[in-house]
């Protein structure tokens, strides 16, 4: 491999409600990671960091607080899950991306649908760097609200990650009286919260074209990207509904 490349790309993206937002995509081929960041229609700042080296992806949401209801200025959440190889293009390919028309408003070619994840384990912030060095920077504001899944924990434990950073959270099935926050009338009682976020446009696959040389030999080469849109809903335990005021029946 050549020298490590760091690059940033800014892309204009259309949100479901029709608004246009600017998305920032960053790649660091030396650290083998990529990140993308966009502001959702409700004002939340959503970031995805993909750490290819550790096979970890980190979603962070900075959600504007409801000051008139006693919340702080913003609330930070981090959701950490296993990164699969075919989810997003490699860091060195992302670092090479350029766009001819920066004013173009982009929409994804492929809609990958919604994934519903039950985040049943808490991650200890001070130990999280062993899982991915990026947790320390990305989740600094969410140190009390970093969640993952038992099935992903099993995968990382097999890779030799220290299990003491994980703590299994109470589940609705363990505690039958634990309601969904949207149905919980008491703002100070524990409940299962739901948070949804959507990545409206990201480079999910490389496109390959074929060429034939003078001798008739066919070879393939990278000739572009395919873009995807994907949504995620995370369910997780909160000690009081006050930490989940967006999840209410409308």
UniProtKB/TrEMBL annotation:
Domain Out at first protein BRICHOS-like: from-to ranges: 8-156
Top-rank taxon: Eukaryota
The Out at first C-terminal domain, residue ranges: 180-248
Cross-referenced InterPro entries: Oaf, Oaf_C, OAF_N
UniProt cross-references to Pfam families, sorted A to Z: OAF_C, OAF_N
PANTHER family reported in the protein's UniProt record: OUT AT FIRST, OUT AT FIRST PROTEIN HOMOLOG
Family: Belongs to the OAF family.
Protein name: Out at first protein homolog
Annotated organism of origin: Malurus elegans
């Amino acid at each position: 491999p050549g020298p490590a490349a760091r690059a940033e790309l800014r892309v204009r993206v259309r949100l479901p409600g029709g608004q246009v937002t600017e998305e920032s995509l960053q790649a660091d081929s030396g650290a083998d990671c990529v990140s993308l960041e966009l502001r959702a229609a409700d004002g939340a700042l959503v970031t995805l960091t993909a750490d290819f080296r550790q096979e970890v992806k980190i979603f962070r949401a900075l959600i504007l607080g409801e000051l008139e209801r006693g919340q702080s200025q913003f609330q930070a959440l981090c959701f950490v899950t296993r990164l699969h190889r075919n989810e997003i293009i490699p860091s060195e390919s992302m670092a090479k991306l350029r766009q001819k028309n920066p004013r173009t408003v982009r929409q994804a070619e492929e809609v990958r649908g919604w994934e519903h994840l039950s985040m049943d384990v808490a991650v200890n912030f001070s130990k999280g760097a062993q899982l991915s060095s990026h947790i320390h920077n990305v989740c600094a504001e969410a140190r009390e609200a970093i969640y993952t899944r038992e099935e992903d924990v099993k995968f990382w434990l097999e890779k030799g990650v220290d299990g003491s950073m994980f703590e299994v959270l109470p589940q609705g099935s363990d505690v039958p009286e634990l309601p969904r926050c949207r149905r919980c009338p008491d703002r100070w009682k524990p409940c299962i919260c739901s948070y949804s976020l959507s990545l409206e446009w990201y480079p999910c696959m490389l496109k390959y074209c074929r060429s034939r040389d003078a001798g008739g030999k066919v070879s393939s080469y990278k000739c572009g990207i395919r873009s995807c849109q994907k949504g995620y809903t995370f369910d997780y335990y909160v000690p009081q509904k006050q930490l989940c005021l967006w999840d209410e029946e409308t």
